[in-house]
Amino acid sequence: MNLKERNENMREFFNRKSDGYDEVHEKFMTTKNQLIDKLDINATKILDLGAGTGLELIHLYETRPNARTTAIDISESMLEKLKERSFADKVETICGDFFDVNFGSGYDAVISTSALHHFLKDTKLKLYKKIYESLGENGEFLNADKIALSNEAEEESLEDYNLHKDERPHIDTPLSIEHEVEILLQAGFKDVKVYETEKEDYRLIKAKK
């Protein structure tokens, strides 16, 4: 299964899950709010990758009513629910694959929550380089996501993926913190900071351009 096929499987999976998405992901609201609170005070032009129904944007618009957001997600059903939010007129939605969509440029910040642990290490490095290029001077990337608690756990997830990738549409392949930081630095980021969250296997990572 190549990346294009995997992403199409993800699109179909999340379209089917859109009705129950908020109920499942509201348990991550403390972490989503933590990410927004870590944004630079002057960040108002935001790119949200894997925005889903826009749960993390609730706190963004509570604290930054003048922000403008570009929200990208592979699931059209998820984005339709985002368009029902009270702040939807301040959000441009784009339905598409992260690797095909033009992100634009000059963002103060790129944010993502619970979305990027579906990508393998080499693929994620390509994405991080694309994110880096989309940021303006002194821009920042904040990612709150699932991690592997060790390099060994990362390898176990990868083995599971390789065994079942053709039969299961949704398989998590989180990286260890060591490898997350490694590829962020390879992509050009600096001043990478890692914060614990309320969940043992989640971290908030903030990286500066």
List the helices and strands and how they pair.
Elements (H helix, E strand, L loop, with lengths): L2 H15 L3 H5 L3 H9 L7 E5 L5 H9 L4 E6 L2 H7 L8 E5 L11 E7 L7 H14 E12 L4 H14 L12 H10 L3 E7 L5 E7 L1
Parallel strand pairs: 1-2, 1-4, 2-3, 4-5
Antiparallel strand pairs: 5-7, 6-7
Helix content: 25-40%
Apparent shape = globular
Number of strands: 7
Run of helices and strands:
HHHEHEHEEHEHHEE
Whole-angstrom Rg = 16 Å
Structural class: alpha/beta
Summarize the biggest pleated sheet. Answer: 7 strands, mixed
Number of helices: 8
Mean pLDDT: 91
Number of domains: 1
CATH homologous superfamily classification: Vaccinia Virus protein VP39
Q: Order of strands across the biggest sheet?
A: 3-2-1-4-5-7-6
Walkthrough of the structure:
The protein has helices at 3-17, 21-25, 29-37, 55-63, 76-82, 121-134, 151-164, 177-186; strands at residues 45-49, 68-73, 91-95, 107-113, 135-146, 190-196, 202-208. It is built from eight helices and seven strands, in the order αααβαβαββαβααββ. Helix content is 40%, strand content 23%. The radius of gyration is 16 Å and the shape is globular. It has a single domain, classed as Vaccinia Virus protein VP39 (Rossmann fold), CATH 3.40.50. It has a seven-stranded mixed beta sheet, sandwiched between helices. α6 packs across α8. The longest helix is centred in the first third of the chain and has 15 residues, at 3-17. It is of the alpha/beta class and 209 residues long.
